[in-house]
Amino acid sequence: MKRLFRILTGLVLVFSTSDSQLIPTSNCPINWYPFGNNCYKFNVYPLRIYDEAAKACEAQGAGLLSVNSAQEHQFIDTTLQRIDRDRSFWYTSGYRDEKHIKWSGDGTVSRDDVMFWASPDDLQGFSKFIVYKYSASLQKYAWGATDGREAYRFICEIPITETQRLLQENRDFTYGSNLTDPTLAPRGPRFTMHPINMVLTNRSHLPSIECEATGIPQPRYVWHRTDVTGSEEVIGKSEFYTISNGKLTFNRIDERRDAGIYHCEASNMFGSVRSAPSKITFGSLAQFPNVAPGVNRVALYQGTYLNCNPPTHKPAVSYQWMKGTSFLIQALNSYFFLSADGNLYFSEVQQNDEGNYHCIVTLKAFPGDTLATDQPPTETSLDIKLDVLGDTAALYPPQIHDDFPAVFPKSPRLGQKITIECLAYGRTPLRYRWSKSGNGNLPSKAYTQNFDRVLVIPNVQFTDEGTYTCHVQGRTQTESKDFLLTINAKPYFIYPLKDLIVDENSDITWRCEGIASPRASYVWYKNARLITSGTDGIEIYSNVLKIKNLQKRIHDGMYSCEATNIHGSSVSSAQLKVLSFKPSFAKNPLPRTILAANNGNLTIPCIPEAAPVPTISWLKNGGKLSLPITDGNQKGAQLLSNGYLKIVGVSMVDAGLYTCVAANQNGESMSTGNVTVVGGVTIVTQLFPEMRVNKNDTVFIECQVSYDIFRVDLVLVWKFNGRIIDFTQDFFYEKSTRMGISGLFIHFIDYYHSGVYECVAMSTITQSSISTNVIVQGPPGMPGNVYRIKGSETTRSVTIKWTEPPDHGSQIQQYNIEARTINNPKWRPVATNLSDFNVLIPGNLDSDKRQYTVTGLVPFNSYQFRVVARNRFPQLGEYSKPSEYIQLKPDVPVVSVQNVGGGGGSEGVLTISWRLLAEEERCGPNIGYNVYWRKNGTTEEFQMKTLLETDHMFQKMVSGNSVSYTVNLNSDKLFYLPYEVKIGVFNKYGRGPNSTSTVVYSSEGIPLLRPTNVNGWEINSTALWVTWDPLPNTRDAIKGVIQGFEINVEDANDANRKSVTAYHYGYMEGNNVIGLEPNTDYWVTVQIFNTAGESNPSEKQLLGTCLNPPLLYPEFVTIHSHGPNSVYVEWRGVSTGLFEETLRGYKI
């Protein structure tokens, strides 16, 4: 009995900031503040954007704050000044509407009064949604405005008259039973894992989808399939399927049989729930057409693109490109770009871009879906030929392509990693930059890739929406282009449906609050079967379900809400448990002995469990008490509205046996305690020695004192760790009452609130006190003093040691270690998910110390390390402070050289290029490179050249972070031959790894052949078409590859007149020359050129242009009606002269 007494009187209540225990205090639920006829909840965590904040309040039966008076505005300001030390923004339900403020929380409209605003700028701004913000100039909270996309704190509001209906929502599954541990109480099933969408192919081997649910007793599983015709069937075990618990495996896949929508149904004795749907589709990839695409011709240094034109496929493909036999690596080239749309773009076409390209497509699933194979089908296109034509290069300004900026995926969804691409045509170099409307700052998590042409936003959120601008800087001009990013979202629930344990004959309302873009539609299920409005008295209005006059036999069960939009479906389920039983004091009996002070006050709680809510009456010594119902301020015995008995001014005659009688339609129960009246000061409450609470909860510590109000002047003092709490300075603490009993509230409790709390009742002659130790639980604290174990440094590892962090009430489960170098300040994980066992010190000499040897480091670097811990809470703990820099010992290089390539150069050389090792890759001093080369396809020994970075000549080879080394081949016969090249790296301590081998061609030689049989004809008075015989485009004939042809034109009658030269790139047998004079004869010669130079000119050929075009133009043009679809045009004609070509006709 003594233990039961302590359970009742040693009452410490814990209230979560995210899911409050709704027990009234001052007529408002706990964590809610009263003002006027309303209750207000100040939600500190988690932060929400506007739409989420509104739904978070609605899920609690409330609405976002509506401000209807200056007094209410002042209350909000006063409260925020007391509780918000961070000076945060707080969402309300207000939004601008012309010259008024509309409050969506209660539908009212108010004037846009300047007195409520933080500043004129806030009043006159364009942002829509009203927030409370702190004004340093006004030294108070006032209105500001925002676009609703940022996540802030928010304020909920609910009328006091509606708070009582929330009390039943606080019950758990132990209510009405003999169980006290909610985790052991029987309950219906609920899913912890839903099946995913899956794409099957003919390469899929035993693919499977899976669901998982919890419940007591353990649920059973059934799988359902809805085929393309809409008919649903239950899937049983067969030769086609294997079912193991919640896992469905496809043994023999067949598109006609297996394609469709699947869902998993979990059931136990309390009902059934259905999972979110899983869409099973079949992927396919056809072959590219066997007809080669047409030739793509483009002028030198102009922009263009190659279209992949992928074959028929479903659902999606990824793209790669090859030129010849080599994959294109766009990270190495700033002028071409492989877009996620499949096209290969060139900002400018250069001479060496000419050639045959191949597009490679690989089947893939849409983002969020799974492709059930590790070897997806792949197809390669036929040659896509690019011919580079044209004359002398022009200076093209940057011009952003019409298809850019473009976002991928094309319909970005919440939580995805998205990319925004930008590509401009124009002469390189082109420099790209991104900004976002507003303050111009990009999201902090965003970064750029691919020469800044791609903006990456991981885990994209609604707050990332807005207008992004791509800026391209050319040599002389700049171009910018905007892109509006909008985020879609598959429905998700910020507040899932909550289990309801409610009284029979009562009413309930469930709100299914899903966030979705576009807006979701809703359907409801009971025990996995679709229900509609009118079923068993159920009313359904979209996402709201109401049931009046609940009946256990009809309405008990599992209910699910499914929210669906074009991006998919999400399901939230909860159990409705309807109760009806007689009152019980099994868990909360009255204390056997109750002490009260003479002339003091006494409150006796009466907390039975019952359904429906019982009526409470009291007996004294077996006789019924006629008690008035009061607010607790009258003299004598009285009944509080919550059923408690309160005696104001206790006297000796109040001693005796008091019995609480609880009765409802199912019967009555009673519990009795003996009140003894004593003198002096008596603390009625007894507290547990220790109590555990979670960070950010609100705690109530009860301290009921009974004393003689006529003889004793009592002072009630609260102490924390022996220090008196100053309630005027520390706003987290509040002395108040809960259900008529005084105590201490600790709001938004944090780790530093852990400690001993003592309630001291002091008078002039005596004092009495009670105390308890409050332990705040949460993610781990900061690991202490990270340092190296002296002498543990090697070339690639070091052992670090740290002090175990405060576990905050939950055992440390894992550690993560991150590192950065003095040359790279970005923190990178070097050891993750280390169990506490893995980091124990052998022998356990220091019980609070942990250590771990970090391996895989790069020698000769100065590293800093930091450590973070994790316990049962989902969030990581606090990162430690960085260690001092730890210098590793030098060693041979461990990183190979990257970006090996080359080619080109003057005749008789082999040019080899590579990227310099970064500072943190050098592993030691005195870096050098071994350059290896040999003819490709041979087994002869590599020739080698050793280069030291300290050499004066080496510095001349460096441009930026690239090196270009030229090998003199000393032979006129080694032109344009493939060489196998590789680069080795070494330092003071020895050789490191070689790079992978790459094929590089030696430089070309001057072409030996020259065009023959040059001929042609006039095109018009200023242009000629010149032809020549086909030439063999071979290594021996051309000493390389023909890059183009040079056509030279010289006036046959005046050698001093300026000649005309036309350059045409690519292989051809004729082309034009423009910009000539009419009626003029020209000597024409043609030359071949490659990267080494030009051939000798061909023999001269005499060609002439036409006479002049007509010098006169038609006059007196008249138009006459001719018919319903024609007109008659009449004009005066022209005649041609001696130096004009014969007239051929007219063009209208």
From TrEMBL:
Species assigned in the record = Magallana gigas
Is tRNA processing one of the keywords? Answer: no
User: What's in the keyword line of the UniProt record?
Assistant: Disulfide bond, Repeat, Signal
Positions of the Ig-like domain: 189-281, 289-383, 405-486, 491-580, 583-676, 682-771
Name of this protein = Contactin
Q: Which domain of life is it from?
A: Eukaryota
Matching entries from Pfam families are given as: fn3, Ig_3, Lectin_C
GO CC annotations? axon; plasma membrane
